[in-house]
Amino acid sequence: MDSLEVHTKEFWDERSKKWVNNFESEESRQENERRYQYVDEFLTTQGLYNRDSEILDIGCGPGMFITRFAQKAKKVTGLDISEKMLDYAKLNTEKNGLTNVGFINMPWQDIVLKDYGLEKAFDLVFASLCPGISSEDSLLKMSLASRGWCFTCSFVRKFSSLKNMVYQHILGVPFDADWGQESLGRSVNFLLKSGYYPYISYYDTSAQRAWEVNAKTAARFAGHLGSIKDEDHNIKKYSDAVLSYLQSIAVDNKITEKTEAKIAFLYWRSS
Ligand SMILES: C[S@@+](CC[C@H](N)C(=O)[O-])C[C@H]1O[C@@H](n2cnc3c(N)ncnc32)[C@H](O)[C@@H]1O
Predict the structure, then answer these.
(1) How much distance in Å is there from the Cα of 261 to the middle of ligand 1?
(2) How far apart are the first and last CA of the chain?
(3) How many CB atoms lie within 10 A of CB 95?
(4) Is the dihedral of CA 33, 35, 36, 42 positive or negative?
(5) Is 237 domain-assigned?
(6) Which ligand 1 atom minimizes the distance to the CA of 107?
(7) Sign of CA dihedral 8, 11, 17, 21
(8) φ, ψ dihedrals at 159, nearest 5°
(9) pLDDT at 5 over 80
(10) Does residue 92 fall inside a structural domain?
(11) What are 123-135's pLDDT values in tens digits?
(12) Cβ(68) to ligand 1 under 6 A?
């Protein structure tokens, strides 16, 4: 199934609360904070934006990058498919007293740059973990909106020891942690063929976490047994089996998860 068919406005409106309430734990919140900080420092040290830059943030979510960029750049526009995400982003910028920000509620694939006066309108066109940047057209549109740099990043590895064990036990197959790699290869190929010279860099993280074995933890891992769009169905179908499995491997009713992730930064000059 095409990622755009799964990643609809309704899907992301529904997920907005989870994003704003710091995901599911303090660990996830800190992990995201480190990522925001690292990406922002990377952009400034590589010279992708400065005090005079106008920036477009595609798939801006609740505005965690916007608030950082707006404090150090001339103007930032956040674009998102989800109205609810943008409501949070607006609150976030107001709370920080930022006035050099604007918002567009649109799916990236639907926006006609010319109609919005957005051709070559930005010094940096930025997209972090945005499912709307999944096709050749979406990359080309980033280049057309930029008069300087484009930057996009996405997972090329997302491994979880526990998810893998649950997958093996329930579905009989390992979890494919490297699903993002093909898409990165296609994007690099496409940009080269289109006359751009993309750079790649990687951001690595690893963590360890102990989970209490209970119905909530079982539902979390059950939900991941299949497509993200079928999460509720997967929870109903697999929760009981996952709970018994976790109980069988738990020590003092706890299980340990080790995770490793790799995010690829793909960035190029549009002119
Ligand atoms: C995984 S979140 C990433 C949020 C933020 N950029 C970050 O790195 O933490 C993906 C965001 O992209 C938005 N999104 C998904 N599909 C989109 C599309 N086709 N056009 C614009 N935004 C989209 C979602 O609403 C969500 O806010």
Answers:
(1) 19
(2) 34
(3) 10
(4) positive
(5) no
(6) 20
(7) negative
(8) -100, 140
(9) no
(10) yes
(11) 999 999 999 998 9
(12) no
Strands (E), the chain: 54-58, 75-80, 101-105, 122-128, 146-160, 199-212, 254-269
Q: Is 222 in the pocket of ligand 1 (CB under 6 A)?
A: no
In this structure, what CATH number is given to the domain that contains residue 106?
A: 3.40.50.150
Nearest protein Cα to ligand 1, atom 12: 59
What share of the chain has pLDDT > 70, as a percent? 97
| pLDDT for position 2 | 53
235 lines ligand 1 (CB under 6 A): no
Question: Does ligand 1 come within 6 angstroms of the Cβ of 131?
Answer: yes
In a domain, 102, yes or no: yes
Q: How many domains does the chain have?
A: 1
What residue numbers bound the domain in which 149 lies?
3-158+178-205+262-269
Q: Is the pLDDT of residue 19 over 80?
A: no
Atom 18 in ligand 1: which residue has the minimum CA distance?
A: 132
Write down the residue that tokens 């997967």 correspond to. Answer: 234
Per-residue pLDDT at 1: 45
Q: Does residue 46's CB lie within 6 angstroms of at least one atom of ligand 1?
A: no
> Is 107 near ligand 1, meaning CB less than 6 Å away?
yes
Q: Report whether residue 12 contacts ligand 1, using a CB cutoff of 6 Å.
A: yes
* Distance from residue 236's CA to the centre of ligand 1 (Å): 27
